[in-house]
Design goal:
This protein has about 325 residues and is an alpha/beta fold. Helices cover about 20% and strands about 30% of the residues. Strands 1, 3, 4, 5, 6, 9, 10, 11, 13, 14 and 15 form an 11-stranded mixed β-sheet that branches. The two termini are about 15 Å apart.
């Protein structure tokens, strides 16, 4: 087996997909049940109940990933396969709202060499180890999905490590494998498709800061209760500051509505400011802090690329 490391910086040519302030660009084919909380013809912006307090403890989970190098691996039969050497990490921020304290409670970091090659031994670059992670094909999309799946598994692993009675767990992104966790919300800040018909979308764009839509039920290969919420911030495009939250469809209707109310008094507290974060207000302050911590843990990408190049040489 031979290893070749592409000299081109892997940071170039990768796309960054920011939140779409202009709103979703396509209509979803998901099945929609809008009358979970209110009938469709009675939809309106919903304010949180007066006197409702956020939970004392909020746990926020997120992960980061990075391609350290793009590689080519020639197997013993002389066939060359593409791959990527990647680093990824996940962690939990514990926010004690009563004490006004937030700290990173848990972090995990892993690395891998993603390639279609079977039985690939680990690549050791200095004191950094990249275990072989087999993917089905070497297309760029398949390699990226392989890294994404392993990072998501790492997020799932840390999601239940810091739980306590009465807390609220917020996952940056869809719940996916965490629908079974109690008091858990998926937090989606990028809108690629439109789940609601035009008449109900008007309720979304009419929301004021801290207001949400009524709860609705979505279903495709998965089912979730969901709702839209506008975070506080300066006036902008119709979808500016809009996020979507989701929870398990195994909850009762009343349980889903209670979580929606809780999200409306919790999420706005963490909204970021434009002068601090270009993804404000959707990129919550604890998420931004956790991302910085995790990216620092990944190490210097230039040094890792150089170490991998030395191994290949």
């Amino acid at each position: 087996m031979k290893l070749h490391v592409d000299a081109w910086d892997p940071a170039y040519g990768l796309s960054f997909e920011a939140a779409e302030a202009s709103g979703p660009q396509a209509q979803s084919s998901a099945q929609l049940q809008p009358d979970v909380e209110l009938p469709a013809d009675a939809w309106r912006p919903v304010d949180p109940p007066a006197g409702l307090d956020p939970p004392g403890t909020v746990l926020i989970v997120d992960g980061v990933q990075r391609i350290d190098a793009r590689v080519w691996i020639t197997d013993d039969a002389g066939t060359t396969h593409p791959g990527v050497a990647a680093s990824y990490a996940a962690g939990v921020v514990r926010c004690e709202l009563g004490r006004g304290v937030a700290q990173v409670a848990t972090t995990r970091i892993e690395r891998g060499l993603f390639t279609p090659v079977e039985d690939l031994p680990p690549i050791v670059a200095g004191n950094i180890r990249y275990p072989g992670r087999r993917v089905s094909r070497g297309e760029p999309k398949d390699l990226a999905l392989g890294v994404q799946r392993h990072m998501r598994a790492l997020e799932v692993g840390v999601s239940n490590e810091e739980r306590a009675d009465g807390d609220l767990l917020i996952v940056d992104g869809p719940l996916q494998e965490r629908v079974h966790l109690p008091r858990a919300l998926g937090y989606i800040k990028t809108h690629r498709v439109e789940y609601l018909p035009a008449g109900l979308t008007e309720v979304v764009t009419a929301l004021r800061g801290g207001q949400r839509t009524p709860v609705f039920l979505l279903g495709t290969s998965w089912n979730r209760f969901a709702w839209y919420l506008r975070l506080p911030g300066p006036a902008g495009a119709p979808w500016s500051g809009i996020v979507r939250a989701e929870c398990s469809a195994d909850l009762t209707h009343a349980g889903a509505v209670a979580l929606a109310h809780l999200s409306a008094v919790t999420l706005p507290r963490f909204a970021s400011q434009a002068y601090k974060d270009p993804r404000a207000p959707q990129n919550l302050v604890p998420i931004a802090g956790l991302e910085r911590k995790l990216r620092a843990m990944l190490g210097d990408s230039r040094l890792l690329h150089r170490a991998l190049s030395r191994v290949a040489a």
